[in-house]
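Note to self: the last two entries modelled the partners one at a time, which told us nothing about the interface. This time every component goes in together.
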Amino acid sequence: MLFAELIYALTGIGLFVLGLRGTLLRRSLLGRILAINICGAGVFLTLIAIAYRGPGLSPDPLPHALVLTGIVVAVSATALALALGRRLRESEDE
Amino acid sequence: MSSLPVWPVLLPLSAALLAVLWPRRSAWIGMSASLATLLAVMLLVSQLIDQGPLTHAIGGWQPGLGIALRADSLAAALLLMSSLVALGVGWYATGYFSSIGRQAQFWPLWLLLLAALHAMFLSADLFNLYVTLELLGLSAVALAALGGGRAAVEAALRYLTVGLLGSMAFLAGVALIYARYGTLDMLALAQAIEPEPAAWTALALMSAGLLVKSALFPLHFWLPPAHANAPAPVSAALSALVVKAAVYLMLRLWLDLFAPALNPAASWLLGLLGAAAVLWGSWNALRAQRLKLLAAYSTVAQLGYLFMFFPLLMAQPAGAARDAAFGALVLMALTHGFAKSALFLAAGMIQQRAGHDRIEDLGGTARALPVTTFTLALAGVALIGLPPSGAFLAKWQLLSSAFALGQWLWIPVVAIGSLMAAAYMFRVLGYAFGPGDAVRHPLADGREEIPALLLALVATAILGLGGALVWELVAPGALQLEAS
Amino acid sequence: MMATQLWQITDLLLALLALGLGWAAVSSRDLKRSVVFFIAFGLLLAIIWARLRAPDLALAEAAIGAGLSGALLLSALRDEGETAGVDDIQRGPIAALLSLLSIGLAAALAWVLVYTLGIADPVRMADEIAAQISNSGVTNPVTAVLLNFRAYDTLLELAVLLAAVLGILALGPARPAYRAAGPLLDGLIRWLVPLLVLTAGYLLWAGAHAPGGAFQAGAMLAAAAVMLRLGGHPGAGLPGPPLQRLLLTAGIAAFALVGIALMAAGHALLQYPAGWSGVLILLIETAATLAIATTLAMAYIGGRPVGWGPEAPTTKTVHNEERN
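The predicted structure of the combined assembly is written out below.
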């Protein structure tokens, strides 16, 4: 196991748990959305870390594709959540 | 290799595009697509009966490198349920939404939801399942918010947040599986998974995510507001189909993919939570003031029954007895799908005509809307589990298995749950048949009530009387991953 | 040896920085500060992807993860106006218990991961993809996976984008526009937008053999649209609504048409015939780029543009549904 793989995979776990805890503890929608994104970034980091095979070998491209998909899904969900939040705020002002 | 598994996904997906391009024709496009999808599903089922499980390797690549679609009997049963329910609810929706603008917003999202469901039932790749989960979640949230009112948007937002957390947990599990076994193909994984920390942790993560999405007690808090405040056709789909998808995935993971790695005792947690869900959900349904809220809590309870099957299934080796219990589980899920959608459609009908859905003020409904009230009664029969509904057979089998295996705990829970279901359904019917003048706007077109009635009839009569057929279709061939 | 140790120190620093920025973004009580930390986190993540030899991801993360997400979040902050600001993070015994449980969870996951990495085969799918890549029609392995081997995932992912934007459009009209930019910003935009379009075109073309592809190119175009909107063009450079509908559906449509045509010719779904893979992939990627760009731009605009289509009643005039 490579040092880089280990270090980034553990960081990924840390971010995953940080994001998880943040989503449950933050009160505002924006804060929760940030936390969910950090949570996702943690999973992505772990995936790319295990795909890394050192400076000599080219990395495993499958997790790269998976994470690319994941990034796009995350931004879609973020956009929808923010739009819902805006609608909620507007209906409060009505 | 069969090309049929592609169509249940491709048809609704393409139709969604057409509905975006021609918004004024969206209802027409939607209904045609639902019909075409049903036909494709029926063709698939008949080929399945002939040839056994169907696979389709997308791109022609070896599964693992590429993604495979796989239709076994469990997938087929769920595909049939979802296409039939979607057809019925879609028919209702053409009459429910008053403006073309609202129709144009509804249909593309509805078709994407259907495509997501079918993609999930047919997928044999773990990451692909994650993507279908996300598509399902986002389209469900967007549909749930369509009413636009404050309560609906708030509930949809909570649904989204909670759902995303669940997806993250699921993805973390998928990542762990890939890290350990180096493949995402479910057939290959079924052979490879062993009892070890990676498998247990991955299953725990994925299950945590799925339990949130299937609203199992105590993670059910998001469901009642979301289902109660969405437009009636959306509520029907959410309760009947969307939560079932998560239960389906739990089944696939626990009984199929991770079966070699699991100790049957672990499933007792699911059973106990299921029992709690039955009691808690039924109790809250009894206390509900609004019909749609009652229906939503009833969903929480009914899903509890499904989870109570898990310890029964896992305590037996593969064989006739387990097949019977599995068939009962599927029958229960199917019956609930049809019955709950009928209930929500009937509730929607009443809400439109009476202007509200407060149960205690529904007097006179039976007189003004006899067909709808009859639908309510039929749906109630199926939800309580009275003969001849499919749920009766399913609960009977549940009790038999519990008795045979000595798992006594479930028996009183089923009994109490069914009694409470009877109580809350009869309460509604009591008010509906009572005196009063709830329904202000008389029914212009009696045909609007037909879809709900048909759905309820399937739940109560067809699935009950044809229960044996469903049994035979589903039980033996269902869990194929291990066998192949 | 020196080089290895330097790398190790770099990795350690990057990892700690990532944790620090993540912590800051999640724990900062001031929402504005949280968002800024989050954008910085996204850029740091892009650097980490580059370090881990994932240049495609680095491009996508910088453009989408930091750039577009950041733009969306800043827009949301702007909407909140004066009410934005201090966010209360829950304190108290439940929060403390949750923090304790999180530490436990992190420790358990870390243990499982280290143990698993020790016994797992590190090759996984890498060799198989390398073996098949000459049959894929492209030489960039990530593009091969996304547009050929696992094209079905990409198809569904485009559907996810569509579902999100349809949901956003159904919620209400677009956000109010910004006022027209002053000469300096306007001049900058006049330079940057064509450059962004050119870069997008390059990334789309290069994606077959170098880092790049439909998602990165689409994100560049969306960035151009965001710039235009920030400069005072409410339409963000997008064409009128009928064409917008076409663009939104273009990506999935390309996949579906190619897929169905191939099935009619007797192949499996999306099984490109030998020799045609490169062309078909480019075709699908072009359509997908336009679709992704339009979707992200419309998501940023935040709602229905004028003339979008048959109007749905607003909440107040929705009849037949009673709010409780």
